[in-house]
Amino acid sequence: MKKKVFVFIIVLVYIAIIIKALVFKSGRAAGLSRAINIEPFYTIKNYTLAFNNGNISFKEYFYNIIGNVLVFIPFGLIIPYLMLGMKRFNTFVLGVVFILSIEAYQLEKNIGVFDIDDIMLNIVGVLIGVILYSFMVRSRGLNGKVNSK
Description:
Blueprint: H1 2-23, E1 36-37, H2 42-52, H3 58-70, H4 73-82, H5 88-109, E2 114-115, H6 116-140
Helix pairs in contact: 1-4, 2-3, 3-6, 4-5, 4-6, 5-6
């Protein structure tokens, strides 16, 4: 039980960090002058071109493209661990709802950039986390549940 409380606290801290990093990040994406991007792959293409042309550093490219995937992998791993019995599909749906909520908040409050590419990359991160969780469960032979002791 103590371990589950500890993990729950970690999740709360993780979610607070995600909200701060994604909602209150400063600046606009490379090549974007608008606060809304609903064109799939627009931001990804601009960051890739800017990186290939030497206009942005690898660190900036990595943070904005790869970082958007990496930040949500723990979501797909931790949520099913905390909520034993939650189906992996429901974890995925919860992740998508959380991501859309963050982007909708940015749009409503006119902060950051509402970006379909961010949504797509974040969803890929949740999906990778859910898949990794599934592999962990199978490798431990736990029939869909991770031991909480």
